[in-house]
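Table S2 (continued). Query chain:
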Amino acid sequence: MGRIYLTHFGIALFSAVVLTFMVRAGARYLGWVAAPRPDRWHRKPTALLGGVGIFGGFLAAYLFRRPATLSGDALLATSAGGMFLLGLVDDRIQLKPYTKLVGQILCAVLFTTFGLRLHWLPNPMLDQGLTIFWLVGITNALNLLDNIDGAAAGIAAIAGGYLIYFCHQSGHHESATLAASFTGAVLGFLFYNFHPASIFMGDCGSLFLGFFLGGLTLVNTQIGARRNLLAVLTVPVLLLLMPILDTTLVTISRRYHGRRVSQGGRDHTSHRLVRLGLSERSATLTLWAIAAGAGGLAVLIKDTSIALGVGLLSLFAVCLLFLMVFLGRVKVYDGVDDAAQSNGRALLPTMADFSYKRRVFEILNDLAMILLCYYGAFLLRFEGESDLPLFLAQFSRSLPIVLVVQLLVFLAVGLYRGVWRYTGLDDLVLIIKAVASATVLSSVAMLFVFRFERFSRSVFVIDGVLLLLGVAGSRIFFRLLRSWLVRQRPSEARRVLIYGAGDGGELLARELQNNRELGLIAVGFVDDDPRKTGRVIHGVPVVGSSDDVGKLVGDRGVQEILLSTSKVEAERWERVSRTCSEQGLSARRMRIFLE
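Corresponding output:
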């Protein structure tokens, strides 16, 4: 079967590369290009209708060895083809939104009429309605995800690759062949669509990709997946997690700020990553990594026990929620529309002024950590034992007590008085005290309420270790993530050299990294103490002494010199200032004032 998959993949890849090249040339000649707009990301006219190359490559591979009988795969190819035509018409004549929605629903109804459903609900009619909602929702979610070069196509290719595996493992080889054809066609188009893109797929491409992926996950669940209910419920969601997350974030954000969900804008996940300082390529690769991680988790959940799968899925969900909250704080709007605010269209507008929403998030984070760590302690202690269900029942009985006691201890010791972005050694000491106290007091509470009958004492030891790692790790991760992102300076930031690698230099370097409004980025230190040369402070190297300034200015593209210490000899500073003046650069002193 591997040879068959590879053959179809190769045919689709080659056909898509050739067809996309031809479509790009034709679109440029006919003037079918997307002009730059304020609410779009591209900066130059770019050819449209790349979806023709994707669908053409897929169709060439599919017709190479088409099934002789009508099957779910043939029905999927037909319905997805109808979605492609709908998108093609929309690309040329701009259909009204409700007209396009009706066409999407008709394609979904055609696909689900012959019994292909999610099988999430026992009632067939309700389950068909939910499946239609799933197909239309995923189709539009991937359409929304097509907002930066390579994002939608790359994530679709990753999902297609995982579907080859899932379909093959479930014994549905025709579906795996179909997935191989799809993946090859998308990768052929991606050759032209990765940053900087020379062609966009358009609605004909994004609607086809979304519907095909949503439909193929249904075909795969018809065989083999029923043995693991958790897999039936989560594998389709995990494989298409990135478009679901992006759509959810955009919908909540726009409603929160009183904007129409249907309006365009630079507020998608990829745009927020770029606003944080990542390059467009890095933002796209980050989205790909999340999609690949979600697919890997889907593989684990399919092949593991339900108890372990629930734990892994919960941990992954907390991590994603953490990331989405972080990205949701990125400023992408100028402010809530006044008209929307006055008309009440903003979702909970008073929350914009809610002073303690950050503390609420911290408490919710720790609640999740307490739950996950306590559950993880039971799994580590009893996974593989026949009486695991009994111990999980004890977990359910004791969880409310553990949650209440440990959270109250965290509040009592002042764990929520700190600021995560400044987490340091003193905060870690406080976290250790809080976790130790919470573990001991929750154990005492269990002794008082249940007398530890049929409870394992080692569970609480494991829980204490996991809780320390979870509570401390979430705060440290937040600081590390923020520190890494704030260092990704935009190209217009001025490159500066800091004179003085002592306490003042460390303070100045940290301020430049944390305060992006200054528009300065430190590219090196100079210090007259030769023992400091080669050292690194906050990721910035000590590159020489004041005698080397003239050479370093040219080598490192320095635009300004900042003096961080008052201990430098006046003669040396005068010499450095003179060197800067000769090269047209400014030299300034750092001063701290208390008034």
